[in-house]
Every structure is written in structure tokens, then in C-alpha cells.
Queue: 3 jobs
Job 1
Amino acid sequence: MTAFNFTLETTNGGARSGRIGTARGDIRTPAFMPVGTAGTVKAMFTDHVRATGADIVLGNTYHLMLRPTAERIAALGGLHQFMNWRRPILTDSGGFQVMSLSKLRKLTEDGVSFQSHIDGSRHMLTPERSIEIQCLLGADIQMQLDECPAIPIEHDKARASMELSLRWAERSKRAFEEKATPDQALFGIVQGANYEDLRRRSLDALMEIGFPGYSIGGLAVGEGRAEMFRVLEFTTPHMPPDKPRYLMGVGKPADIVGAVARGVDMFDCVAPTRSGRHGQAWTKAGPINIKNAAFADDAAPLDPESACPASRDYSKAYLHHLFKAGEYLGPMLLTWHNLHYYQELMAEMRSAIAAGRFADFVAGFTAATGETAV
């Protein structure tokens, strides 16, 4: 088994390209991780997910602990075998979903008690239990349990939340050292809302604890793109250059391009799959709504030059018809297309960074989509 490692291969301005090594294969960075919330990337076969160029997918601790349970998945051989995905898997800690989905939740120093959104049953998620679940699932990359407050938030409340997350980081690492295998990795999560002093304090303390990778949490929670970029600009320059940097829950293509320009390596978001199920296709000229009447007679595919069959082999008129008729194939094809578009975007950025022309890539992206990423 190969121990977790990271190689920074090229930098171009603030942008970085590299490679994360894991026991189940390498992850090329910048990397986008399709979200497999309940052990599936919605509307996709796993071999199709891999064919889009994805090196890694994300699993969700909260949803899997409730159904079918981590213990059941472990008894069935772990999450990789359960969902037929042989490549790396990253799991979140479950904390964000507890805060956003659960009823009657109660936050204490020990952890979070909550009521399941599925059947109303009561549960307790502590740093130790979160790590236990992630180890039962067999995740290659795991996250500490943290609190993720919404922005805006008062400085004192943001500081208290950040400090609680730091104490949970220490407990998460101790639990990980007891339960994990040598080839697995645990990331710390930088919190502190949109306050520079709190982000620096959080990062400094996490580096003192020591992790093989660092996540940036608490963004993409309604603060807006410009504010998110501002937080990244005073956070990423202080992160260890020899460790991967993961911006959690981000995002739309322009968000990702702008974050790569600011030194981020890893991303995940439900945007390509969720928008695909609802009729939105991401294209090189920006997003389109395939349900619009303008596409009813459009014989052209979404991208005639694409390597993806969903993008290349079906007309916009046919996709429009599928959505209007309520056929399952419509969301499946558009999700497939969107995931391929995202992976193609990541590959283009990796090539641009390696060639020293990332600024030109950003300029071209902005001109084509009308989205400002810098």
C-alpha cells in the first residue's frame, strides 16, 4: 500500500499543478471531485464517472451513517466495493449536513446531537465518532469534524466557533491515529468566517497540530464570489506549499477558475449533477437551460468535438424533448455532460499551468463565458 503523498509539480502565478498519491491511485491537481452523497454520483454509472476523467469522488458521512449505516457498509467490504468505485474516495465529516439538514440539533463541546431527517431517530456525532464512521467506510482522505457557521457572523461568535473546531481537530487527529490505516490521510479544516485574523489563527494552530492536507471550510455559504476570493487571497499564501489545499463545497466553473488562480488544488460541488438533473448544461460559452423553447428545433449537440457521448451524440432538440416529456434519460445525459465539462475544465487548467500560460487561459475563459474569475 502506498502512503499518502503530494508532489507540487508546477506553479504559474498563484496557480499550482501537482499530484496526490494514494494507495488507490494518483489524483491530478487541480482536481474536481464529483459528489457521491449516498454512495452514488446521482444519475451516473461509476465507469462513466471515471470516463469523464475523475480521479476521485466524495462520499458523505452524514447520509451514509444514517442509511445504510457505516457498519453495514464495512461488513459488505467498505464503500469502494459497495459502490463499485476502485479509485480514491474522500469523505466529509458530516458536520455541515448536521448543521444544515438535521432537526432539533444541539451543539456542545462534546459534539452535535441531532435528529435524523429520514426517520426522526436521535444520533450523536463527535469528532471520534466521525472518524470511526469514515474509517468504517474506508475513505482514503478524511475530514476532521468542524463547525461551519454561516456568513455574516459576528467576530466573537466566529472566534468561538473557530476555536471549537480547533479543539475538535485535535480530537479528530487522536482518533484517526488510533483507528486509521497507514495509507489513509486526515485533513484539517481552516475556519474563521471572513475574518483575516481568525483564518490566520486557525491555520497556524492546525499546522502546529500537523496534517498531510488542509481544507478551507466555511465558504460558499452565501457570501458571494468576490468575498470568497478575498478570503482566499489572505488565506492560501500562508498555507504550506508542500501540502494539498482543498476548498470545500465549491463550486461553479468561474468559482473554481478563480480559486485555482489563488492557489487551491481540490474542489467538490453538487453543481454539475444537481444542475444536470434540472436541465442546466454547462458549456464553453456558459450555462444554458435546455428546457427553453429556443432549443426545441436545435439539431446541434452540446459539443460536437467532445469525447463524451452525452455531449457529442445527442441534439439539443432531443435533450429538450426528454426534459419536457419527463424522461429519466434527460437528467442522466445532462449530468454526464456536465461532469465531463468540469473534468475537461480541470484538465485544461492543468495543461495551462504546466505550459506557463494560466493567465491566458483565464482571459479566454472570461471572454467565452462572460464570467469574471479574477
Note: The domain at 5-269 is CATH 3.20.20.105 (TIM Barrel).
Job 2
Amino acid sequence: MMKIRIRQLFALSLGFAGLILVTQARAGIDCGPRDRVLARFVEPYHQTQRAIGPAGKDMVMETFVSDLTQSWSITVTTPQGDACLIASGLGLDTLALVLPPQGDPA
């Protein structure tokens, strides 16, 4: 029951990220060709890609993190190659979660 709610919440948050992407893309805020958007934070803040996954229909979400500057950024990219910076910040702590084996109802 809890796994289903977490998945539903995650799917809902990805849907909201998609709405933000569409709204920002129309307004031209923090959006543009992927290489130009990434150039604003990847090299200057020494961030590297740490996670990637699907976000909504045909979009890709990426997370970039820097151990050096403790900064992070999240982007969403469309199939056309346009990306939007969804969120960024400083002060990141990573966690090592121990997950139950697949198929375990716990």
C-alpha cells in the first residue's frame, strides 16, 4: 500500500515537472538548447550527471551534483533537445538507503 502511494506521488510530481517545463518553455525562462542550459551550471559549479530517467511523456529528467561545491541542479529535456532548469541549490547530503529485495512485500 505504501509503495503504491509513493509511486503515485512520484508520478504526480513528474507530471507537475512537465507542466512547469511547458510553462517555462513558453515564457522562455531558464529554458533553451540543452547544451546552452547545462553550460550555465555544469562546468562553473563542477557538477556531473548523477541520475537520469523518464519524466512525463517523452521527456528526460537529469540530476547534476558537485561534491566540490555541494551544489545540485535538476533539468528536464524534451525530445526536440530543449532543456529547462527545474531546480537548483546548495548544500546537498546524499543518503545510502537499504531497499528490500524485489518481490519482498515489506
Note: The chain has one domain: 2-90.
Job 3
Amino acid sequence: MNSLQHMPELAISMRAVVKRFGDIVAVDGLDLDVPAGTCVGLLGPNGAGKSTTMKMLTAQVIADSGEIEVLGYRLPGDSKIARAEMGVVPQLDNLDTTLTVEQNLRVFTHLYRIARAERADAVERALEVANLTDRRKAKVDELSGGMRRRLLIARGLVHRPRLLLLDEPTVGLDPQVRQELWALIDALRSEGTSILMSTHYIEEAQRLADTVTIMSHGRAVAKGPPADLVSQHAGDEVLEVYGPPARLVEVEAEAVAAGMRTRRTGTSVALMGVESRNGDLPDGVRRAANLEDVFVLLTGEEVS
């Protein structure tokens, strides 16, 4: 099932996809590509449509219009076949707490119809990948939050999927545990697993993704390699200007009048692309532009 022989050029292709819930348009004409063997970050604030997009890729939610292909299969008609060749790590922890780590994985070897003779090896491989071999006999409710999240990833990998869907994989975890999971995801990407990862952590997308799609109000508002998005939308350098509110309003108005892009926070105004400005600039602190600047520029949302 992990053979790349029949891997299509795109692990995921979505074209003009729309999903409504009553009067609410959750996904509005979305185009999304995940080239085979790459990691794509789906970045956006809460309510941007990321989780709905993930659910449409597993046919938990059916699109109202548009075209969706996963691993060369058309959804929703071929969703059962496609689902068997992908792994899914949900945002919410739905592990069986009455079972041990090993037992949770064994259940999924049956659900994924792994051949009886291959099940033990599949469990061992998943335990090793997730660094849980020494906790195999532990009950799930004895595990830390980070271990439980690693077990969720191991469960999604037990059948060696060609595509892995990660829905907010590190939400609610402390920075140290998040770094551990980043290393695991990075290793999977380096092995050629295609990954679509939804997140609202800017650093996570910039660290792990080959390309990023930024969503806002159900639409893709920008896509490309993180460094390219930064260069295109925020330039190379940003000038952070600090001061009282009245001064910040004045600086922002002057910058906008001069054709500059700005980002407002509670204590400062950031002026984008100042490396190309030869005229007078207000006093401030220069720094390198980053993906967070792009995110705020395009979505209007502060990062949580």
C-alpha cells in the first residue's frame, strides 16, 4: 500500500470546492494541491474552514460542489478506497482509554484489514516510529498529552499510508512536546510520505511545510513556499514603530498614504518592505519579515 509505483503527481487535488452549512459558507471555492511526497500546511484562524476541508477529504462531509481527488481517486464515489490508503490524525483525542497503547494499534490493524501475518510487524513499526515501544503495555489514560498525540499519529501510520492528514496535530501542547512532534512529522516527510497539516501555529507551518496555503473565510488567500510568501507580501525587512496610540495612528496613516503595507498590534505598527524605501522613516526597530506578518496582513487575525 506504500508503493510509489502508482502515486499520482498530486496526492490531493481540490478544485472550486464549496461547502455550506445552512446560510454559513464554510468553504468557498477552494483550490488546493498537495504534490506527492511533500508537506503542505493549511494555515488559518479558527473558522477559516480548515477542519471542514479535512473532513471533506475523508468524506465525513460531502462537498456541495467542486471536484476532489485523493491519491488519484475521485471523492465521494471512491472515498472508501482512498480512505484505506491514507492515515488520519484528528484534532480531538478519540483513543480508547480502556485499552493499552499496543491494543489500540492492534484494533486498527484489523480496521485497516492488514493481513494477519503482518499485523505484529505493523504494530512494532508504528510503536517505533512514535517512540512508544517502552509504553506499549501502558493504558492510554496513563499517558501524558504528548504521548497520547504520538499514539494518535502511530495509529494513523499503522497501515503505512501514502498520505497523512494531520488536523491541528499539536494544539494544546506545551512547546517542548510540540518540538518532539515536529521532529516526528519532519521524519515522515523526509521518508516521502505526503502530508496535509492544518494548523493555526505560524511557526509550525513555517518549520514543517514545503508550501503553505493560507485560508480566510473559507477561501485560499495565498499559497506558496513560506519564504516566497514572506518576500511577496511583507518584503525582506519590517520596521516596528512603538509609541502612544495617537502616534501609532499617525504613523500608520502616513505609511498607508505612501503606499506601504502595515500591520497593527496593540503596542506598535509594523511597516512592511522598508528595505526598498529611500526616504525618511520614523524611528523604530528593524527586523526580518516573517510568515506571521503575512498571516496578519492577509487574514486580519492576530496569532493566538
Note: The radius of gyration is 22 Å.
